[in-house]
Amino acid sequence: xxxxxxxxxxxxxxxxxxxxxxxxxxxxxxxxxxxxxxxxxxxxxxxxxxxxxxxxxxxxxxxxxxxxxxxxxxxxxxxxxxxxxxxxxxxxxxxxxxxxxxxxxxxxxxxxxxxxxxxxxxxxxxxxxxxxxxxxxxxxxxxxxxxxxxxxxxxxxxxxxxxxxxxxxxxxxxxxxxxxxxxxxxxxxxxxxxxxxxxxxxxxxxxxxxxxxxxxxxxxxxxxxxxxxxxxxxxxxxxxxxxxxxxxxxxxxxxxxxxxxxxxxxxxxxxxxxxxxxxxxxxxxxxxxxxxxxxxxxxxxxxxxxxxxxxxxxxxxxxxxxxxxxxxxxxxxxxxxxxxxxxxxxxxxxxxxxxxxxxxxxxxxxxxxxxxxxxxxxxxxxxxxxxxxxxxxx
Length: 394
What we know:
Elements: H1 3-6, H2 10-28, H3 46-54, H4 63-77, H5 84-100, H6 103-128, H7 133-214, H8 218-247, H9 251-257, H10 264-275, E1 280-287, H11 296-316, E2 320-328, E3 332-340, H12 354-365, E4 369-375, E5 378-386, H13 389-393
Parallel strand pairs: 1-2
Antiparallel strand pairs: 2-3, 3-5, 4-5
Helix pairs in contact: 2-3, 2-5, 3-4, 3-5, 4-5, 5-6, 5-7, 6-7, 7-8, 7-11, 10-11, 11-12
């Protein structure tokens, strides 16, 4: 315990000074509590008064010591002419011992003082055998049990308030953590959507603009500029659609804006146009059974995986055929994209690796599996997505 912690509180200093001064005034006026029941000179009553009063300085920092000294002082006061101030100070020391003392003391003092009050009452009645003997028990209860019980009640209220405050802080902390996680998850989802929607168009723009700069032929440049314009317009439309969704997250608008596997043929047609300069062709093998709807999250994830695979093929694949296969069983939807792996004659667009990360995240969020890598002369992308609604929601 540091010196600073032993420094008396300002209120305790004022209380100690005021209590001792009141006791001195009572003593000087001849106001005693014991009357003729004393064995010592009148000035002897000042000794327990000063001793007990000085303990008010330590009532917060050393409650056990102050209660012990106060108990000895109030007992010693009974052998003098007596000071009412000494008794009153002792009741405050009892109260402070319960409020500021250790938890074990706070639990023990109300019980022990209650038992002492009962024992003193019974002993007084048995010894004096007069109704007035009950007053001794009442006074004992007022001096010891009442302040201990009051202190215990206050301490219980304080501890309950502190526990409620801690629970509120923990709840607020958990809510903030949930909010942060939700924000991070939403940002990741938005990043995937932005990448998947715009990367395809920007890759085509990069490839054809490079071709227009590197091949000095008017026909080639005009064709490249046409593809660049088309992808620019489509990319701008996609960006506007996404911004509209962010501004108005209405269920009807969002549901209408989510792409589905029915748009795969149109997606491949765009890829054929964009990949013609690089010697790429695109083939779709849709092996799904007809009239069997898929959950919207599964359709969106599969569509985006195919879209990103085609974008990667436009960036990196060698001349040849890119094959897209989509199949479905009772439990899963399978997406497979095979593209030629090797050197290419046409221009390349730079890649960041974010596309593979986004495809893997989409599959894992639905409880599915994802794999991508080279196999012989082909680059293979494989994704297995569960089609059960319970699995998707989990």
